[in-house]
Amino acid sequence: MRVFKEEQRFTQWWLILICLISGIGILLRLLSIEDFSENLSIGKLIGPIVGLLVCVGILFVKLHTRIDKFGIQVWFSPFSFTKKAFSWKDLETAHTRKYNAFSEFGGWGIRVFRKHKAYNVKGDKGIQLKTKEG
Question: Is pLDDT of 70 > 90?
């Protein structure tokens, strides 16, 4: 059996623009603290650090899909805890289809909407899986 592999990134221009503007704003705010030693506290740094990590993270996160003789695996790198594997024997159906990320799942990323779950980063085409458990 052939192996299918795909990697996708968040490459939407508007998302990159939001991340860049937010990241620059956060860095400028941190640089505006005049006396870093006196005004430095963990509480003041947690928000900006989390903001920077989210902005940088969005630019480096990749969605991986692998289809092989064992089944289908999907995960977001570098987050190994997001890995999900579906064995062929546990699947009732698997087919490609068009979908709307916002109306069906509420957006991109790992999305849970009603009984459905989606791993997506962009586009309107994907693989729909139905497990034997429903």
Answer: yes
